[in-house]
Amino acid sequence: MNTQITVSPTACEHIRKQVELTRSRFLRLGVKESGCNGFMYTLDFLEDTLANDIQVEVADGVHICIHQDDVALVTGTEIDMVTQGLNSALVFKNSNAQSYCGCGESFALSKEADDDQSSASTASATDLATDATAKT
Question: Given CA atoms 107, 87, 43, 11 in this order, what sign does their dihedral have?
């Protein structure tokens, strides 16, 4: 399965540091139903992968795990690190997103992506969201 995720160099470095700080080995990228517009990204730090995880090496030594049910929803995601003033956050962009909520926390999928999700599993999401835990 071809899982394409693009991670900017600054986001890779941030992820690398966070994995080290949490004494983890992997970052799991997922989605869940949430927010005022449908879906949002989730991030979890892992010691080990699960049998149904897909592992993507986005940089030397930086591995992102994706639960098999979420792969169709996150494929094509671009992850960047954005700094505004004193705050920094990971930002996610996905070509399957149809709309975003005003606060930037959640998004809605296009009809095609929503259909793919229904047939793949009951997981969720892709789009533009920020992760509050990524503030530095």
Answer: positive
pLDDT tens, 21-72? Answer: 999 999 999 988 876 667 788 899 999 988 999 999 888 889 999 999 988 8
pLDDT digit string (tens) for 79-123?
999 998 999 888 888 777 766 666 656 667 665 445 544 444 333
Closest among 31, 112, 18, 37 to 69, alpha carbons compared: 31
DSSP code, position 4: -
Judge if pTM exceeds 0.90: no
| Annotation: CATH topology of 6-134 | Hypothetical Protein Aq_1857; Chain: A; (2.60.300)
Q: Residue ranges of the domains in the chain?
A: 6-134
Long-range contacts of 55-61 (CB under 8 A, 24+ apart): 55/26, 56/3, 56/5, 58/5, 58/6, 58/7, 58/12, 58/15, 59/7, 59/9, 59/12, 59/16, 61/16
